[in-house]
Design a protein that fits this description.
Length: 151
Amino acid sequence: MKLDATDHRILAALRRDGRITKLKLAEEVHLSPAACWERLRRLEVGGVIKGYTAIIDLGAGEPRTTVIVEISLSSHQQADFRRFEEAIARESAIVACDATGGGIDYMLRVTVPDIDSYQRLIDRLLEQPIGIERYFSYVVTKSVPLGRSGD
C-alpha cells in the first residue's frame, strides 16, 4: 500500500492520540469527515493500522516489578520454537516476547508483583520440557518515557 503525505498526517495524529474523534482527526489533517473516514478505513483494511490500544501503567494500582529476560533454547528446530512459544503464551505475567537473531533466541518482558513471584515463574518454566538452555534476568529499575510526538 502506497502512503501519501495525508496518510502520514493521519497516522501521526493517531500516534499522538489514539482516542481522537473522527471529526477532530479530519480537522487536524485538513480533510472532510467523509474523506478522512474513507482514508482511515483504507489504512485499517490495508493492515497499516493493526488496531488501537491503551497504554496502561501497571504500577499505578499497586507496586510491580518488571524483569527483562534473555532466553536461549537448547535446540533450534521449528517444533522447539513452537513448544516454547505456546508455553509462554499461557503465562499472563509475560507481557511481551520477541524472537531475536544472534546470541539469544527470545527477549521476554515480565511484569510481576515482586521478585519472589518472578522466581516462581522462572522455576515453573524451567520445570517444563520447553527447551530453555539458559536465561539471564535484568530487573528494570526505571522506565524512561521517550516523549516522541510529531512524527
